[in-house]
Design brief:
It contains 14 helices and 12 strands. With 390 residues, the chain is of the alpha/beta class. It has 2 domains: 135 residues, Aspartate Aminotransferase, domain 1, CATH 3.90.1150; 239 residues, Type I PLP-dependent aspartate aminotransferase-like (Major domain) (Aspartate Aminotransferase, domain 2), CATH 3.40.640. The longest helix has 23 residues.
């Protein structure tokens, strides 16, 4: 018997981070000490007070049953309270917040909730690699919004052809951006709301890096914008804010119709999050923001070490104001893939090629700040010794 995978899978690429893991394993098998600046996986542990709540609640038999699809009231109330304190945004915990097992699944399922086959979804190019597959599998069509360096890696809504805009059902945005680290302004978000109203487009704003900002910058929530809840939703995650990537605890907030539609798809496909995880996340959201502020200061120190060191090597680095990524030009005539491969082979430093994030990512690389500052300095030194000086 010969089993053939579905034809739709042929439209999906190899997932970038699977590929990076394979490259890393191959290099390690050759005896290379790899400094992994490829995957944005926070390297610091989850704070003890969050772990303590998980351990306590996991021993409570009440939480060993099937969990709620919407999320526990305690969790949704904590999300609502955090939004009010952080962004001065009012959210109804019952109708405007949905618990998710990681924001990635929510973003992937959103096209199934809102798009019919053939509908157009506007996405940035380059963008986070998880955006395209959900659109493709839902049978929708992708229209790209170029993120150009001359525009600060922000979409130019005025350049979207009117026929494309009229065909669009959904727009995906991500600020602070992955991979570009671009921060959105109040003016840009107002333009998004006006554009969405004009063309009847739902907006999804992905904001997992909102607390990783530097040099006095403060990231905005899309939902702070007047009229935003009329047109869209925002995805947030505990992964980056509280160093909880393995916990898979996130939420979608905003427009109640979109929340309801996404919840309907989700309830038919997966389950609710383990409730002790939700209660631990609620403790995090209800607690002090000292930890996220300390993490931001730590990442800024790492950014300074990396960007300053590479500038000394003649790289002309673009210094980010947010996220824990550096998005900068390939400093040679190589393609981004060739350069990333050479850096791994000759310096033992793993980075992400920009081409993995979209065609307009070619010519750029993404470097993660998720190792200790001493390892970052070592990476710069290895790069220098390997001859990547310009």
């Amino acid at each position: 018997m010969k089993i053939e995978p579905a034809e739709r899978l042929s439209h999906l690429p190899v997932y970038l981070f699977d590929d990076l893991d394979n490259q890393k394993a191959a290099a390690i098998s050759k005896g290379i000490d790899v400094i992994d600046l490829g995957v944005g996986d926070p390297d610091r542990p989850t704070p003890d007070y969050i772990i303590d709540v998980l351990c306590e609640k996991a021993r409570d038999d009440r939480y060993h049953h099937y969990p709620s699809f919407k999320g526990l009231p305690e969790y949704r109330n904590a999300v609502s309270g955090w939004y009010k304190r952080r962004f001065n945004v009012d959210l109804d915990p019952n109708t405007e917040i949905l618990s998710l097992i990681g924001s990635k699944i929510g973003v992937a399922l959103l096209p199934f909730a809102l798009c019919n086959p053939g509908d157009v979804v506007l996405i940035p190019n380059p963008c986070y690699t998880a955006y395209r597959p959900g659109i493709t599998l839902a049978g929708a069509r992708i229209a790209e919004m170029p993120l150009l360096e001359k525009n600060g890696f922000m979409p130019d809504l005025s350049s979207i052809p009117s026929d494309v805009a009229r065909s669009a059902k959904l727009m995906l945005l991500n600020h602070p951006g992955n991979p570009t680290a671009a921060l959105a302004s109040e003016k840009f978000f107002r333009e998004v709301v006006d554009f969405a109203r004009q063309y009847n487009i739902a907006v999804s704003h992905d904001a997992p890096y909102s607390e990783a900002t530097y040099d006095g910058e403060v990231a905005l929530s899309f939902l702070q914008t007047p009229g935003a809840k009329e047109v869209g939703v925002e995805f947030h995650s505990c992964s980056k804010v509280f160093n909880m990537p393995g916990w898979r605890c996130a939420y979608c907030s905003g427009n109640s119709t979109i929340i309801s539609a996404l919840g309907k798809v989700r309830s038919n496909i997966d389950m609710g999050q383990f409730e002790p995880v939700q209660l631990a996340a609620a403790a995090a959201l209800n607690g002090s923001m000292d930890h996220p502020r300390k993490m931001a200061a730590m990442y800024q120190e790492r950014r300074d070490a990396l960007c300053g060191g590479l500038d000394e090597l003649g790289w002309k680095v673009i210094w980010p104001k947010a996220t824990f990524f550096v998005w900068t030009r390939v400093p040679t005539e190589m393609s981004s893939g060739e350069f990333a491969k050479a850096l791994l082979e000759k310096a033992g430093v793993l980075i992400s090629p920009g081409s993995a994030f979209g065609s307009l990512g070619e010519g750029y690389i993404r470097i993660a700040l998720t190792v200790e500052v001493d390892r970052i300095r070592e990476a710069v030194d290895r790069i220098r010794k390997a001859g990547f000086v310009y």
